[in-house]
Description:
Order of helices and strands: HHHHEE
Bound molecules: iron/sulfur cluster
Strand content: under 5%
Structural class: mainly alpha
Distance between the termini: 34 Å
Helix content: 10-25%
Amino acid sequence: MRTDNDIAAHARDRMPFANSVEGEQWQANWCARCLRDAPFRRMGKGSGCPLLLVALTNRTPAEWLDGPRDERGRYSLAEQYVCVEFRAPGDGGQSRPRPEPRGMDGLFPRPQRRIRTLVSPSEEVPASAT
Ligand code: SF4
């Protein structure tokens, strides 16, 4: 996950939810099951998920991509956004590349580690396309 400052700097200047019911429904489906927020949620340890903190300042984290919409643009409250940082229970933590076997070279060069840029799709799907 990006740093707190990066998350705040890239957040969109719009309220993520129209009201508290929307926010509660979405968080119940995502954050209540997410391992990233589990230590804070269950034991009060750590500082909790920084994405939720940004959302509480009425900004939408870039990590929250718009969820599926129907042909009229309607969405379910539980799927309003897809959080790309969601870690499902049993996920096993952050994925890491496997090391090369001892005494052997890899088949392909490994890419440099970089910060991911998260952007929502910019093109609207026309209603007639569905
Ligand atoms: S990473 Fe996403 S799903 Fe997990 S607690 Fe944070 S905002 Fe919620």
